[in-house]
Amino acid sequence: MANTKALVKRRKSVTNTRKITKTMERVAMARLARAQNAAIAARPYARKLQQVIGDLASASGDFSHPLLETHEPPKKAVIVVLLSDRGLCGGYNGNIMREARALNAKLQERKLEIERIVLGKKGVGAFRFLNLPVAKSYVGVSDKPSYARAEEIANGLIERFGKREIDEVYIVFSSFISMVTQKPRVEKILPLSSLKEEIAAKTDKKEAKEAGEYLFEPDPASVLTSVLPLVVKMSLFTAMLDNTAGEHAARRLAMKNATDAADDMIKQLTREYNRARQSKITQEIAEIVGGAEAL
After folding, report:
1. What are the start-end ranges of the E strands in the chain?
2. Of the residues 56, 89, 153, 190, which is catalytic?
């Protein structure tokens, strides 16, 4: 027969745990709303920035820039991995780390020297566990990503790329799709090869007529030179915003699942307690009746 005191104690423990997970779910939900709004609000700006660059490129004709040029042969790559500072968010960090390790293996196959920059306390611990050296790490930035931090990191990468100290830069992060879906993603931000292809395509389509509707001061090429570094900064910043929204969404879902599991466990323990208590009462009644008959 089950021990009723042990069942009561265990049920109380599970109930206390449920209070914690329910509270964390509500906190994550509140933070998710702000992070989701920030991530969604940044996307139109990024799309418009690419459109403006296309118009500038069409107006400037043949255009070249160090950030658009591929270094041949490439020797060194930088991987910027974005993870969380706190846990209890399900498989969120694990999924990003799997993507980062896969990218790391691909770059090693190409015989490239790899430098790693990690954002998030959990990432620092994960790379230490894997015995993979980290060149630079940032902690305490996942809850409230700032453009100033993204600009600081991007400026350093742009400067080193211009000096040919590094040849390729990738960011690994979680792309926020919905409240229940976050997809690990790898994006190449240097060189801006994909942007170069878009510029070439727009130039081939002779979209200079549309760009001719605008007046550029001092000239399209100069403006484009000033704007291109902004693409790298915005790519990193939007990835940080997506990552934060994905973290809170994953934590909300993980805490909801934990709360639901606690509810099921409380129901099961309550049934076991009622059965044990009923069995004990039945046994006591049987003992009283047996004693009375013996008299």
Report:
1. 76-82, 113-119, 136-138, 168-176, 182-190
2. 89
